[in-house]
Design goal:
By secondary structure, the chain is α/β, with parallel strands linked by helices. The chain is about 35% helix and about 20% strand. The chain is built from 24 helices and 28 strands. The strands form six sheets. A seven-stranded parallel beta sheet has the order 11-12-10-13-14-9-15, sandwiched between helices. The chain is globular, with a radius of gyration of 29 Å. The structure holds adenosine-5'-diphosphate and zinc ion. Adenosine-5'-diphosphate binds next to helix 10.
Amino acid sequence: MIVGVQPLAGFDKLLHYKVPAALAAAMRSGLLVRVPVGARTSLALVLEVDVPADVPVERLKNVLGILHEFPALTPDLLALARWMHGYYAARMEAVLEAMIPAAVRDGARLKQERYLSLTRPVEATELEALGRRAPAQARVCQFLGQQVRPVRKSLVLSRLNASAAIAAALVKRGLVREEARAVERVAYADHWSSGEIVTGLPPRLNEEQAAVVASVKASLEQGKFAVHLLHGVTGSGKTEVYLRAVEQVLAAGGSAIYLVPEVALTPQTVARLRGRFEAAGHRTVVWHSHLGEGERLDGWTALASGRARVVVGARSAVFAPVPGLRLIVVDEEHEPAYKQDETPRYHGRDVAVYRAKLAGAVCLLGSATPSLESFANVRAGKYRCDRLTRRVDDKRLPDFLIVDMRIEAMRQRGLVTLSRLLVDHMHQRLARREQTILFINRRGYSSSMQCRKCGHVEACPHCSVAMTYHRADETLKCHLCGHARGAPAACPACAAPDIRWRGLGTQRVEEAVRRLLPRARLERMDADTMAKKHRFRQILGDFRAGRIDVLIGTQMIGKGLDFPNVTLVGLVDADLSMHVPDFRANERTFQLLVQVAGRAGRGDRAGEVVVQTFTPKTDAVQFAKQADYDGFAEAELEVRRRFGYPPYRHLIHHLFRGPNPEKIRFLAEQWVKQVAQALGALVEVRGPLAAPIEKVKDEYRFQVWYFCARVPQVVPELVRLQAAVAWPSDVTQVLDVDPMSLV
Ligand code: ADP
Ligand code: ZN
């Protein structure tokens, strides 16, 4: 038997090896193996089994060993790896390293121990019968029956004074399972989920939920690939729909993957999921970045072996090696956090859809503010749209109060942090013992220019994105087309002086609240607080218990928060995300407004949202106020169509960086000519231009944009052209397909 493998050793090449007889029976594609590469031993993934070799068989070396008994990549994952390699222009090795956790790749280094557990509950009568024939075996059975999780074999045997033969006999009887598990080398405290579980009876579905569950159920029963987009307003009970879909899959013996943008920020959701599935006897693997190596390997083994059939996690959980995948849920599918910002630069949602396609599974995307990409796929008939138009128990969506900060600035004569209206509403909440959350918009980009008097923002006449201010040469530049003009000293619209944008920090807002509402109990959550996990949990706990009146934080903390006593949400500076040089700026702002508003009025009392903005008339603000997603999406799609932006075309970003700017610019210019020649009408090339941040760590950065109808027509060609050029060693290039951020 001969296998073709991809070594994880720093190069992309298919190598062939012989399989010794002892390993032949276990050999499967997708397994991790050890192979000799040159004088060293390397880890490799088996891509093909039983293939003709490209060299005479006698010259082939042997596979040295198999790392894990279960494939690291199931057949659908193998196909997915190949697709990612081509689509995202990422090296195969980099793709495999993203798909297979380091703990699994290093698995051999982790200390393994044998563990015992019962394969099924053993009745008292059965135990008695066994006791008469084999008392020692019965004692082991009884002991294991009292344990909640597998126990170390050595511990069981020494404790019961039993021999290994007794355990072996039980395994042979099929009563006991013996398995190898990684032992934690370091005691590890999990602050994020810490085994927290929320239990409780599932609620009765309301009519809308029942209709959506039935629609998803129909697709699951068909057993074919389908994508559902669940568009449900905030608080409409989307999670309950996801739960029912997962339960259906588990009951039918299948596996499910449940993706959330960030596990650490959604402890409530995770606890709810675990409560539901574990109550039904399904081990739930929670996959997050704070797992210890042993825990990760343990979770992975449980999934790969089929012992656990449901995993909850951030984007990399999409690669869980579960057999029998029937469903992938992508909660908050619009979240940019699903995009990975290092190689391979994949989008978790898009990969989920593609994996579902390869596995013949159902992909369930959900959001209160679906991405325009997904919305367009619904319109094109590719996705089915299910809707939840009302909040659970007919709770009202919050009312939007828009504060025009231009007027506020005139009234209060100067820079305003908190408007009169917002402060008044906060006072009311204090008096009524209700809670307030103030959000600071951190998606901002401080180099945009906005007039503090009239709100004017200078946009590129060719690209409809905000121009970026460059202090060095006092210019405004467009980062999509390169259009430039001198930076105005006064506002071009109203002639007011000093129009440079300054964002608000969480500290400034905190000071303002302390000054204006000295009696309010106040807590601030920002990057510093987030770094201390126990602090984060403590603040959330205090807020839930009502020990905090006002919580200040960036929108990052807003995800999935469900606090019934919050009746007021303030967005302190809506403009920051609106005027960034990115064609998605409007979409982001709309999403931000709706999601932030979604935190208010989730309990019995209605909620209100106060939005402070210098540009109250923009589409994002107006449509969010009306809670009109469709209206916003239609209007925004029209703009995208006019300029040929996604979702009408794909966008690819190409970054060149290195210490010598003249050299990079020259190379990039040559490159662009080559691309234009080779690809012609298949691609529209813009650039090279200086990147928005021109210099990072003494490296100069230039960028090229490609707009194209189909990525597979362009990326392989770019990669081929790239390989044909002898690039100098001090120039680094990065291709980013479907980038989620332009700045
Ligand atoms: P969404 O994800 O759409 O914002 P959630 O799924 O978080 O909404 O649901 C909001 C709240 O409503 C949660 O506390 C949830 O337990 C509750 N809920 C969901 N469905 C029902 C139902 N059918 N009956 C009563 N309460 C429900
Ligand atoms: Zn432009």
